[in-house]
Structures are given as structure tokens and as C-alpha cells.
Amino acid sequence: MTMAQAINHTLGELLARDRDILVFGEDVGRKGGVYGVTKGLRKRFGSRRVFDTLLDEQSILGTALGAGLAGFVPIPEIQYLAYIHNAIDQIRGEAATLQYFSQGRYRNPMVVRVAGLAYQKGFGGHFHNDNSVAALRDIPGVILAAPSRADDAAAMLRTCVSAARVDGRVCIFLEPIALYHTRDLTHGDGAWAAPPDPSAHVEIGRARAYGDGEDLTLVCFANSVPMSLRVADRLGRDGVGVRVLDLRWLAPLPVEDLLDHARATGRVLIADETRHGGAVSDSILAALTDAGFNGATARVTSTDSFVPLGPAAESVLLTEPMIETAARTLLKTSPRPHPVEATSESPTQRPRRFGFGRRRRGNTVENGS
Q: Are residues 161 and 249 in the same domain?
């Protein structure tokens, strides 16, 4: 399945399993969403559980607040990331604060699905290509998930619903629009489509690692994950051992996994598709510094700009060549560090299909597999 199909499939499973789940938002019912992510759910589960709302984000989130208080587990959709800023106080001043200010007596659980980030081809502009998540990451207690692939999207959505149901958590589930229907990592390989496991969960605050190279750790999330994997493959052909770390969770950050993989190579490059000012990489670098990491670090980000229409978007967004150039510069300008073996057991997933360049085994150096 693609990411869009996996999310649709998982929503269907959750609606069938739990009668207290509601799915609603602009065009999610009759139309099935702008990108078809909720297609067919209204027909299967009826208009009382899957329904269209007013074209008003404050009303959508306000409905979720009331539904959560009434004992439901609402899964509202905000059609585009920029639209959530129109109603951010519903999250900041209401949803995220209710348990805190009521000393746990009341709660309004929800999983807010948000189509967002950039890289839409031939479409965009101020309100439809947005790469700013700083306001969401600044709200205490809110969980911010950002899957990059189909199987993770399914498992992380299931985890968010469980966190909402059991602990009353407010979760923002950020879905990269440009990856909704992506099947290939490289042309025709089908590597970015995957069958979701109906029982899988992803622990909140745990990353996913690809490869086990010892020369460079590429830290990324969402759209920058497939870009980083392609860069890692090219570097691997030149004998550079790279590992790619998909953060998956932007709040809370997977700091334990980040430190494990940073120490394993001693060099960290962060490929951050958000804007340079208020970027996610700010907190990643701070986490490394706070933990006493003394290896080499660098980052590449998008420009401090709204995303323009059409091909002009490429002038402000993070690109694959930018990641590769920064990686080669970091490798060239920083001396080879002495990797520090990870001391904690990390349950990060390491698919064996990706192995970028050199991998040390004792006194030998082999090709990755």
C-alpha cells in the first residue's frame, strides 16, 4: 500500500473495532478527502461517524474538544497544515491544557490528522504548501507524529489513537502530502509501498534507522527521508558508510535513538525540510549539545520563506543536492572521529535492504547489504 492507502485502511480498522471513534473534517465524508485518504469510510460506517464539517478550522477542532469530553475518540482532519494556524488556540489554549488545569479531572483526547509539508508538484502557494511546525512543537504535552512511509503511518496512527484513548493525549498526526501516493524510492523499485501490519504499534519517541555505516549519520523526517536514503546510496558507492535515522516523532523527539546513532559515527548531518528559523533541527542540535556530544554536526534546511507556486518552490525548499553537498563537505572538513559504541539497547528498526557503503566487522570492512 501507499501511505494514503495505509492510512485509509487503518482508519477503517479502527472505526470497525471501536464504535466511539469519529472521523470528520472538510470534505472527508462524501468526497473522501482532497487526496482520497478517507474515501469509502462514510459509505461503510455512516454519516454519524464519518461526516463533513463547516469550512472552519475552529469549528472542526471545537467539535473535537466537545466530542472528547463526551467520551468519544475524535479524529478530526485539518485539510492543510497552514489551516491549523487559523485555529491554533483550540489546541494551545484548550485541548492541551484541560487535563493540566483540571488536575486530571477532565480530558479531551483527539488525534488531529493534518495534511501538510511541501514538495507538491505543480501545486502550492501560501496555504497549500506549508513547512512550519514550530508552533505545534511549542505546546507542552502535545504529541507530534510525522511518518514518512506506509507501514509506519499505519502503526503510528494506531499508537496515537491508543495514546488518546488510554491517556487522554492530544496528538497531531502530520501526513506529508507529497508522499501520499509515492511507491518508489528510486524509479520503479516499489520500495516506498509496504503492507501495514494490523497489530503493529510504534512506541512514541522511537526513531527508525536504515543502515549501520560508521562514517556519517543522516538525521531526517518526512519528505527528507527518501531524499536522504538516495543520498546515502550514492555516498555508499564511494565507500562512505552512512546510516539514515528517520525521527518519526517530532515531539517528543527520539533523543535516546538520536544519541545512539550520533555516537556510532561521530558525524551528524540533519536534513531538515522546515524553515531555517524555528526549524526542528534547532532542537536536535540542542539535544546533542545537552548530552555532551562532541562530534561534528551540520544541518541543511529550507529557506525562511513562504513556499511559492510551481517550480519557484525549488528555490526555497531543501533539496537532495543540498543534502549531498552538505554531507560531502562535512566528511571532508571534519577529521574521522572515533565512534562510540551505543550503551543502551535501542529497538529501532533496521531493514537489511538498505546498507550504505562500508560496514566494519572486526578488522574487516565489507559492503553493506
A: no
Q: Judge contact between 172 and 222, C-beta under 8 A.
A: no
User: Would you state the cell numbers that stand for residue 158, as one nine-digit string?
Assistant: 494506531
Three-state secondary structure call for residue 164: helix
Question: Does some domain include residue 287?
Answer: yes
Measured distance CA(228)–CA(100) in Å, rounded: 39
* Best CA proximity match to 27, nearest among 61, 59, 4, 50: 50
- Stated pTM of the model: 0.91
Residue 9 among the catalytic residues = no
d(CA 72, CA 59): 17
Q: Are 26 and 52 in contact (CB under 8 A)?
A: yes
The count of structural domains within the chain is 2
State the pLDDT at residue 352.
38
Q: Is residue 198 part of a domain?
A: no
pLDDT, tens digit (0-9, with 9 covering 90-100), for 278-328: 899 999 999 999 999 999 999 999 999 988 887 888 899 999 999 999 999
Same domain, 135 and 277: no
- Which tens digit of pLDDT belongs to each residue from 243-288? 999 999 999 999 999 999 999 999 999 999 999 998 999 999 999 9
264 and 356: one domain? yes
If pLDDT is split at 50, 70 and 90, which confidence band does 350 have? Answer: very low
Mean pLDDT in residue range 33-52: 96
Whether pLDDT at 343 is above 60: no
Choose the catalytic residue: 85, 128, 187, 276.
128
Q: Are residues 222 and 97 in the same domain?
A: no
DSSP string, 221-289: -TTHHHHHHHHHHHHHHTT--EEEEE--EEES--HHHHHHHHHHHSEEEEEEEEESTT-HHHHHHHHHH
Q: Is the residue at 200 inside a domain? A: no
Residue 195 DSSP label: P
Q: How far apart are CA 88 and CA 148, in angstroms?
A: 24
Report yes or no on 194 lying in a domain.
no
What does residue 9 show for φ and ψ, rounded to 5 degrees? -60, -45
